[in-house]
Amino acid sequence: MKNLSHLCLLALFALTLACSGKEEKTQTSTPLSEQALEFEIYDSLVVDYLGNLTLMDISPDRTTFLLSDSNTDTLFVTNSDGEILHYYMLKGEGPNNYAGNRTGIAKFSSNSEFLIPTSRGVYSYNLEGELLKNYEPDFTSSVSLIIGGANNSVIHDNKFYTNLTGRHAEKFGHQGVEFQQNSKQLEVLDLETGSYSPLIPFPKASKFSSTEKSYPLLNFHLNLSATEDSLFINFRNEPKIYGYAFDQLDSTSAPNSVKSIPFTSFIEKVPKENSKENSFDIRDFFLGTINSIIAVEDNLFLVDFLAGLSDEDYKDANSNAGGDINKIFDEGSKFNTQGKVLFDGTSISPLISKPEILGNLNKYITKDEIWFSLNFSAAENDYSVIYKTRLVEK
């Protein structure tokens, strides 16, 4: 980790105090909808490894970094100076490996252990890569959408909250009106007992609770985030955030708060009829998409989204791709609005700008510590860099 000298730190601390005073005045006087925000690079973690490294998590004591090579799924453990302490491939059929596909990033459960969510359950490992426990669910799990780099789990009070699905498949299927009325959308794993429990039906305020129209399962893929006392969920194709108090969570929980995100444009699914079981339409990949939500505070969220393509834009993208399904995503991106905004429960900021060298947001700790991967298309290095940024007003 790059370090400043003691004197420089003092100077920087004094400057930060002065700037934060100005920033506080600016924030209170300038509406969020008018604030020009950017991610500013001020430090980095450099790892002597040639590959596409992304940061998954940082240990509670802030001394250990857990990273993954997105090309090989190899995991790396480094210290805060970027020195590689351990690396290993854990996916496979061996007795020490996890089965299925990783459905999200690994997360530290303590300073010396981490959890990996997979399509077959949750696995616990120590820093040396030794399997400590396989938390196998008591139902046949299934996953509608696998995003290995997603931050879609929460650890709170020795419990692991995850969007593992499949508990209701035998009785209600994977989608449809009956599923929408009877299923639960979240699983919580008690790390002490090893038992899974279903939580949270579709909220009444959600379109996915409809008794008349059914939605394809891709549309309600779940995003999670949390503050110290509240859990927040969002469904992929619905611009709403639902808040729940941890101490009131159960299988029938209704949200304590419902916040609608006022995007200028966000293309939502409008079913023309009840969709069939496991129905799939590539058009659904080009609807409005919430990629992630990060609860900065109870009433402030960092939201990563895609506005989606209108029918006309989708038609043009499809035409430009010449019917080649491999090209339509590249063509579609030319028509799509994508980025990150702050949302305060009422209004949203303009798109937050970032230097071209920054890739994906990997780890959010505070507004003064936000980690990004390298934009691999913008640089060619013989080492890997994870950038440390802060959110500032231009």
Strand content: 25-35%
Based on Cα principal axes, name the global outline: globular
Integer-rounded radius of gyration: 21 Å
* Helix percentage range: 10-25%
Structural class: mainly beta
Mean pLDDT: 90
Q: Oligomeric state of the chains? A: single chain
Segments where pLDDT lies below 50 for 5+ residues? Answer: 1-27
Would you give an account of this structure?
It comes from Algoriphagus winogradskyi. Keywords: Signal. Residues 1-18 form the signal peptide. This is 6-bladed beta-propeller protein. By secondary structure, this protein is mainly β. It is 13% helix and 35% strand. It contains five helices and 23 strands. The strands form six sheets. Strands 1-23-22-21 form a four-stranded antiparallel sheet, with no helix packed on it. It is globular. The two termini are 26 Å apart. Mean pLDDT is 90; it is low at 1-27.
